[in-house]
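hiii so um. not sure if this is the right channel but i have a protein structure encoded as tokens and i wanna go backwards to a sequence. like what aa goes where. can anyone help
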């Protein structure tokens, strides 16, 4: 009996998705749980696993189609128990526009689909696109991730002249250049769903909140001395590097506990105070900025925070974050300093009322006890919703963070 392959249930906050790429063509054999296609939502790329071992009899929608929960995407002919799946002729009785698209795309998609099949279960969508774009056979790549999973760094390390390269057609056609007066050209590219959603949320934040930003600067001498003293022992004992983010998350939670309105949100005419601390950590990816959430961050130790953040970064680059990883959050931290930003005004992540911006650490002359000395300084910025947070609370929040970071022993003593 044929099996209908449908769009999996999407979260309530996600209305639809885009079928970005088919990794299999009509008539191809597939294994159970092998990824058939990539579905891009406003937040993440989801994989469409094969429900059984067998042969894809027909594809019902072409790549680029907007689809909804439960929509029929393909028909799978399962293999009989104890028998091997054999290719069957692709069905031709499909909606005419779809048939035309698939007929044209099939010769190009076949080698790509074959490559995707071998890498199924060992790569995320983002890594798979890099493998396909560079023409690298995933079977030749040694994965360094959990359970041998291939990450982007593994692909980058491959020798371009090595035996693992073979010509693979590009998954997407080149963007056509449009001529302009003077012989110059320009290209028009549709926004991805993620970029479109980011744009919508940024405009929403500007329109629906009374945003204001306050600044301060932090002398990170004590934090840097502490890291230098314990970083080797920390990494050896916990298997993760001691970064700056753990200190900032801990300091932010201390400040949020003192000024709970910064951890609150607005719903109609109500202020919703959250008695928990779900801290969003902004992560930059090739697809755009995403914010996975560290839930109950106050319960995490330093090693736990650093491990969780490292895991967020790895899975964000692989494209393997789940919808649940990105939902909710009561406060956000973003670090533009990793890109060299010295000062910026971050935009709120609705419906949150506060976001902390970290920046580049730079040695600057400061006056200490009447003497001009060079210290590693960082500007920090708090953007807040002035509808519920007064300037006094915002400034005191940053001062509390500053005091904690300049004297990390406060984290142990709770003062």
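sure thing!! here u go:
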């Amino acid at each position: 009996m044929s099996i209908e392959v449908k769009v999996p249930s999407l979260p309530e906050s996600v209305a639809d998705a885009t079928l970005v790429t088919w990794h299999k063509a009509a008539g191809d054999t597939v294994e159970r749980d092998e990824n058939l296609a990539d579905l891009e939502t406003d937040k993440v790329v989801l994989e469409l696993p094969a429900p059984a071992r067998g042969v894809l009899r027909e594809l019902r929608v072409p790549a680029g189609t907007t689809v909804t929960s439960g929509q029929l995407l393909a028909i799978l002919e399962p293999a009989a128990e104890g028998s091997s799946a054999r290719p069957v002729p692709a069905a031709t009785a499909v909606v005419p526009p779809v048939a035309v698209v698939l007929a044209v795309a099939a010769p190009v998609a076949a080698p790509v689909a074959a490559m995707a099949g071998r890498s199924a279960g060992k790569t995320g969508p983002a890594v798979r696109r890099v493998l396909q774009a560079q023409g690298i056979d995933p079977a030749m790549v040694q994965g360094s991730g959990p359970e041998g999973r291939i990450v982007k760094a593994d692909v980058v390390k491959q020798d371009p002249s090595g035996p693992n390269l073979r010509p693979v057609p590009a998954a997407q056609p080149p963007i056509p250049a449009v001529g302009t007066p003077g012989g110059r050209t320009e290209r028009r590219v549709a926004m991805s769903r993620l970029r479109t959603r980011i744009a919508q949320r940024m405009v929403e934040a500007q329109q629906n909140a009374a945003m204001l930003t306050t600044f301060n600067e932090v002398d990170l001498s004590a934090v840097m001395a502490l890291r230098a003293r314990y970083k080797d022992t920390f990494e050896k004992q916990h298997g993760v590097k001691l970064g700056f983010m753990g200190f900032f998350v801990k300091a932010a939670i201390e400040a949020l506990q003192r000024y709970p309105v910064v951890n609150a949100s607005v719903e109609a005419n109500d202020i919703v105070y959250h008695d928990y601390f779900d801290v969003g950590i902004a992560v930059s990816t090739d697809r755009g900025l995403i914010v996975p959430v560290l839930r109950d961050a106050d319960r995490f130790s330093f090693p736990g925070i650093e491990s969780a953040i490292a895991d967020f970064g790895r899975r964000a680059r692989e494209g393997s974050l789940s919808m649940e990883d990105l939902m909710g959050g009561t406060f956000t931290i973003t670090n533009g300093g990793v890109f060299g930003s010295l000062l910026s005004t971050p935009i709120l992540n609705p419906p949150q009322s506060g976001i902390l911006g970290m920046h580049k650490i730079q040695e600057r002359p400061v006056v200490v006890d009447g003497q001009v000395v060079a210290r590693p300084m960082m500007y920090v910025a708090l953007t807040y919703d002035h509808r519920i947070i007064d300037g006094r609370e915002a400034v005191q929040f940053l001062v509390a963070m500053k005091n904690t970071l300049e004297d990390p022993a406060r984290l142990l003593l709770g003062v």
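oh and Confidence is low (pLDDT under 50) at residues 90-121, 159-172.
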